[in-house]
Amino acid sequence: MADPDSRLVEEVGALLRRAAAEAILPMFRHLADSDVSEKAPGEVVTVADRRAEEIITTGLRRLRPESEVVGEEGVAADPEVLDRLAGPGEVWLVDPLDGTANFAAGRQPFAVMAARRRRGRTEAAWILDPMADRLLVARAGDGAYRDGEAVRTTAEPLAAGSLRGVVAARFLPVELRERVAAGAGRIGAVLPGQHCAGQEYADIVDNRQHFAIFWRTLPWDHAPGALLVEAAGGVVRRLDGTPYDPADGRAGLLVAANESIWDTVHAVLLATP
Known about the structure:
By secondary structure, this protein is α+β, with helices and mostly antiparallel strands. It has 8 helices and 14 strands. Strand 7 and strand 8 (about 145) form a beta hairpin.
């Protein structure tokens, strides 16, 4: 008998691909001015975001009628939707188009992401790169996979000067930004980021970079990637070293390919002098 969770992983992956094919890819570099609006200062949304979320939400409710859906655009329209995340039942986090600013400007990367949570725990995650049609999936306790092939983060304890990673500085408090700047010269490469959290997590899983630091940690932006990195052997913690919980509303996150790299980056870039 087929594992129902394995079947669900495949069905949700197919759903994300359908949303990309129907709502996102046809609009890439074909958006009219009226297709893009500002939902908050500095935060844009497109018709593709909203249509993709509709497709994914409808599909998830068909697959799992008893579950709740917390989507980025649903929360933008009604902030009380976020309260569903704290419930004990099954909740889906959906980012229909991560990297909207890139998409609206006609550039890559952008991603489609989802995570399944039950009893306050993220149990499964999906990150789709629509342009490459590359899907990363993970189930808690069962590893991470790229299009069916197992992926692992590096286990090598690299020195600071060999590390390459992202500091998403836009929302960092001034004091923390200054601390990072003071230590950045000791890191091999500190990158400004790609304005797409899904790609940052994918690059750690694929060993194209070793760490990422974020301040704003909206749950749909980070729950999928956090599980993927952890399932691949990496470490995801708050800046004070406590576990990451997408429902806690806190800020600050350090993601690293392994424990040693997490400790090194924290000591060099984040530790109080």
